[in-house]
Amino acid sequence: MRLTISERMGVLNILPPQGNMATLRIVRELQSKLSLSEEEYTQYNVSQKIDQSGKIWIEWNPEYDKKRVNIPISKVESDIISQALMKLDQNSQLQLGALPLWDYFVDNKEPQEV
Hints:
This protein is mainly alpha-helical. About 45% of the residues lie in helices and about 10% in strands. The chain has helices spanning about 5-15, 20-35, 40-45, 75-90, 100-105; strands at about 1-5, 45-50, 55-60, 70. Strands 1-4 form a two-stranded antiparallel ribbon. A two-stranded antiparallel sheet has the order 2-3.
C-alpha cells in the first residue's frame, strides 16, 4: 500500500498496545514497516518536538508528505488496522486525521496520488 508520512504515523498511533501473542508480534512487525528509516529522517527533515505538558510528536517538511511510499501490508496486518479503526469509531474516538486511513483499511479504497 502506498502511504504518506502522516498516514504511516497515523497507523502507528492507532495500533493496539495489547492483545494476544500473535497479534502483538504482527503489531511489532507493522511498527517496523511503518516507522521512518534513518535515511527518511534526514531526507524529510524530521525533528522531534516536546510541548510543556511533555507530549512528544514529530514534524517534517510538509512538502514531503505528498510523496507516497510503498509499504507491504498483509491481509492480517490490514485486518488489525481496520479493527483498531472500527474500535475507535465505536467509542467515538476517531479523529479527523484518521479518515483517509478509514477509506484505505475499512472501505478498501486505494490511496490517491496527490
